[in-house]
Amino acid sequence: MLGVPTAPVTLQLFAELEDYSSDGWFLTYLPAIIRKFVRSGRLKIEYRSFKTNTISSETFVKQQAAALAAGEQDKLWNYAYTFYLEQGKERTPYVTERYLDNIARQVPGLNVREWDRGRNTDLRVEQVIEEDQQGRAEGIHVTPAYRIGRTGGALRDFTGSNAITYQGQIHPTTYASAEDLAKAMAQIH
To answer: Could you give the angle at the alpha carbon of 76 between the alpha carbons of 75 and 80, nearest 5°?
Structure first.
């Protein structure tokens, strides 16, 4: 989670670390959302793992578990940011143990030994699998994908106004901007 637990609005973000679209939203749109809504205490963002572009399911689970383990130390967002900055070519086997360790070593303040123990637990693996299944059950098809609502209440699908469609893609990818969030938050009572 990013933000204060008592924020009145929750945004669930379904994302994948090897996905260029998630990378684009995270690096381009998220900073303004953090400045405008998260730091003011109006919004909290919950990260959810969702597989779209990683070739291997095993690699997907490993990389997402690594990010979630960093989250145990309040460093998930730092880990994901660094991963996106160093992201390799989609659908290639660039994510190795060495790659994941290198990302962890670059995150300021991350206890790498504790992180390594945390990422290799059954609990972390189960969390990644459950989040992916939850997204599929809720009709998520692409990343990034969003659900928004009053904290503690029902969440609804939310799409940004900046749509991108790739050749052969059935469901468009959208980037939710700070302006999109402002409109959505104004409609939440």
So the answer is: 120
Residue by residue, pLDDT tens for the chain (189 residues) are 999 999 999 999 999 999 988 999 999 999 999 999 999 999 999 999 999 989 999 999 999 999 999 999 999 999 999 999 999 988 889 999 999 999 999 999 999 999 999 998 999 999 999 999 999 999 998 999 999 999 999 999 998 888 777 766 667 788 999 999 999 999 996
Secondary structure tally for the chain: helices H, strands E: 8, 6
User: Regarding the domain with residue range 9-186, which homologous superfamily does it belong to in the CATH classification?
Assistant: Glutaredoxin (3.40.30.10)
Contact 174, 160 (CB under 8 A): yes
pTM for the model: 0.92
The domain spans of the chain are 9-186
In what helix (H) or strand (E) does residue 58 lie, and over which residues does it extend?
Answer: helix 57-71
